[in-house]
């Protein structure tokens, strides 16, 4: 793996995750209380033996940059040729912002060439999964491939409009490819299953450079791997599919695109179930992140008299530095340095770092962004029309989302007046 360079695309706007991406890039959105979405791809790299990484950013990258510098630089040694470099748009080749996934890599082609890799692994920084990229690279090497595409089995109905769909022969060579088709072609013999691209690619470096330079000359190209590079490569070159091998060690393979608020909410809520689909307590394939120097979470008051205060958390995750002070949590995730005050009730919700829930407040099926203060006695998630009138986001499945920039005190002051 010393000849492998990972290029991680982490610059998307993440508009479907608004308002959580109003001030941060999608890969920097918190997940599971203590983590960020980007931590899963970076942990996969580290666990796979990849020690050279370029992280391509574009929009709202400050919090992502801070997270990488605080939590990840210590795992790598520059003197040994190991690094994770954050690369904002250089515009050395083109004055425009990145036009597509292939263009993002093309505009950084000089930086990639400088490292002289034999193989380049292209990864997305906004998916939740566990995968050993070393097996992917080995598959590429054994097949003398020019390009290898990570492949995921998905229901045909789910693949429509969502994934690039591949056709393969008996040797896993890609013989056809459609990007987000209306009617995906199923796997032969399995009419309900399609073979979808995961947005994970391995290229032999010389072949990658040739294809990027060629694609850049095509004026009609969207400069995207799925729409342009793969379809243009499959006829004349050796392009193979690599079936997703899951390191999650569960019955079913786990891969999630948490690109919508409802998908994000459901993936988080899985973590507080008795037997989560995603195994976060796996010492063989650990997920690393930045761990701030904070005290343990604290639960105070055990007044057993009727009506007494009792700090409780049931089926919940509570991060370091948080205090449950006479409130009650059920099926919820609470980020670091948060506080649940007396008689407050938080159910089936996600609270980011530094949230303060006032006394007697009630929160249900909500996502509360960083630093929001919930006033005393307020109910959130109980009345959809009221939450919409307050200016909150309410998803199709009824999850209320409060952005960290919302003027909570000012608004609730008007409501009470």
Main sheet attributes: strand count, strand direction, barrel closure: 9 strands, mixed
Reported CATH architecture of the largest domain: Alpha-Beta Complex
Q: What is the level 1 CATH name of the largest domain?
A: Alpha Beta
Shape: elongated
Helix content: 10-25%
N- and C-termini, Cα separation: 64 Å
Number of separate domains:
2
Number of helices: 11
Rg on CA atoms, Å: 23 Å
What's the number of extended β-strand segments? 29
Ranges where pLDDT stays below 50 over 5 or more residues in a row are none
Tell me the fraction of residues in β-strands, as a range: 25-35%
Structural class: alpha/beta
* The CATH homology group name of the largest domain: Spore Coat Polysaccharide Biosynthesis Protein SpsA, Chain A
- Average pLDDT rating: 92
CATH topology assignment of the largest domain? Spore Coat Polysaccharide Biosynthesis Protein SpsA, Chain A
